[in-house]
Specification:
By secondary structure, this protein is an alpha+beta fold. It contains four helices and eleven strands, in the order αβββββαββββαββα. It is 23% helix and 31% strand. α1 runs antiparallel to α4. Keywords: Signal.
Amino acid sequence: MIRNTLFIFGAVLATVVMAVPASAATLVQSFENNDLTSPTTVSTLGDVVSSAFSATGVTDGAASYEVTPVEATQGAGAKFMLKINLLSNPAIIPALQANPIIQFDVTIPVDDDPSDAHDGTKAVVVANSEMGGFVGYYGGATNDFTFGAGSTTYEYTFSPAVIAGLANPANSYSEITLGFNSQPGVQPTGYFDNIRIPTAPVPEPASLLLLSLAGVGCLSMGRRRG
């Protein structure tokens, strides 16, 4: 009875400890030192009317990146503002294969321009590659920004098929783009920071010892029954 109790306690405790996630992440870009190339390269796209480094909406380090898309004149539509070229940033693919999630922080301040149609602005993430095609789009109502409320951390999880398409060695292009999906009118200026791929939860070192103890308990039960 005592052995059974110890086995159950050890197994449950090991499970609890293993659930503790690691805090590290693979940094894609935090825009420090007025730099778009370190640790990996992020570039702006053609539908950006202006961009600059800024101290607004900083969540990591001392700088964010300010981007204002070209004004939309006909209907709502996506404006893709930052591109991550995976072929020139090969370290990103293994990180996504280990944990297929991208996170980034966005701040959209409130201003006094009544023509700004900010209420319908949503985050957009697209993964596109030659072998995988146009493989990702997201702009649901749950991603509305609360303007003036500080930075919003946005997270998108890619499917296994998307990751396989991005990682295909036959690709002549493979990229992830970040942007907004907005209503017509003057587009909101967004401040991006801390683009990263979080590290998947891993067992803490103590959990390995607990798993060993649980295994010993299991063997002990088996011998007793035998």
